[in-house]
Design goal:
By secondary structure, the protein is of the alpha/beta class. The protein has one domain: 3-Layer(aba) Sandwich (Rossmann fold). Helices cover 41% and strands 18% of the residues. It is built from 10 helices and 9 strands. The strands form 2 sheets. Strands 3-5-4-6-7-8-9 form a 7-stranded mixed beta sheet, sandwiched between helices. Helix 4 links the parallel strand 6 and strand 7. Helix 1 packs across helix 10. The longest helix has 20 residues. The protein starts with a strand and ends with a helix. The model has no long low-confidence stretch (mean pLDDT 97).
């Protein structure tokens, strides 16, 4: 646990410490937490030789809770007011931010909105830069499954405050004001290379998202499309690990040169 702003945050570390190797910093999805990365961090550390650091945002996993409702700006708030302090507390020196879904959006906002020389690149899996109607429909479907009990039971294994975790995320996305949520204005200010990993059968978004990064970023941005759904790191783990490993090795080789 680390404590920031009066909140205790659950953290975990795999592989070498920050003074021995670069760090891959994991930012979880809208219903994720440290435990829901499953074996991906361990496999990522083994494949790359880098350290891997993850934390559960407030309201998730074993981290302290936060009150409902969550504002539409909750991803902006996390990126612009907490990520820097978490990296400081973890002792991160040079890193790649590896975000999934909401975590990818938070990573993009951070890289475009905060000047942090520690961040050398971004890996964005199933990113959201603006709202697509199909995403809202899927989140409505998730609400129905949660209220019927099945999804709540599964998530309660991982979140100490499961109703906060679900309703905070779900309520913000289904707020009518969220239809105007759009972070494409941050993309031109990203000054590090970007790797995007997108599933071709992702029910939450299309390649219009990855196209937005390629069109908007002033830095190199490449996209890997994989035959999977919303979680490439779990549903297509081998090619996802291979893509991240190659991206990281090339990136840090250039920096060392």
């Amino acid at each position: 646990m680390i404590e920031l702003g009066g909140k205790r945050l659950e953290t975990a570390w795999w592989g070498p410490p920050a003074d021995a190797a670069p760090t891959l910093v994991l930012l979880h999805e809208g219903l994720g937490c440290v435990a829901l990365w499953r074996d991906f961090p361990e496999r990522l550390a083994a494949a790359t030789g880098y350290g891997v650091f993850a934390w559960s945002r407030p309201g998730y996993g074993k981290s302290d809770t936060v009150p409902l409702p969550w504002p539409v700006s909750y991803m902006h708030d996390e990126a612009l007011h907490r990520v820097n302090s978490v990296l400081d507390a973890a002792g991160v020196r040079r890193c790649i931010l590896v975000g999934h879904s909401d975590g990818a959006s938070i990573a993009a906002i951070y890289a475009g909105g905060v000047s942090d020389a520690r961040v050398r690149g971004l890996v964005l899996m199933a990113p959201h830069y603006f709202v697509e109607p199909m995403c809202i429909a899927e989140i409505e479907r998730a609400r129905d499954i949660y209220e019927q009990g099945g999804l709540r039971t599964r998530l309660a294994r991982y979140h100490d405050n499961v109703d906060i975790a679900f309703r905070g995320w779900n309520g913000a996305w289904l707020n009518p004001a969220f239809r105007d949520w759009d972070i494409r204005d941050f993309l031109p200010y990203i000054r590090v290379p970007v790797l995007q990993v997108q599933g071709t059968a992702d029910p939450y978004g299309t390649t219009a998202q990855t196209d937005a990064m390629e069109a908007g970023s002033m830095s190199p941005a490449e996209t890997v499309l994989l035959p999977c759904g919303h979680s490439p790191h779990l549903q297509a783990a081998k090619p996802t690990l291979a893509a991240i490993t190659e991206f990281g090795r090339h990136l840090f080789r250039v920096h060392e040169a």
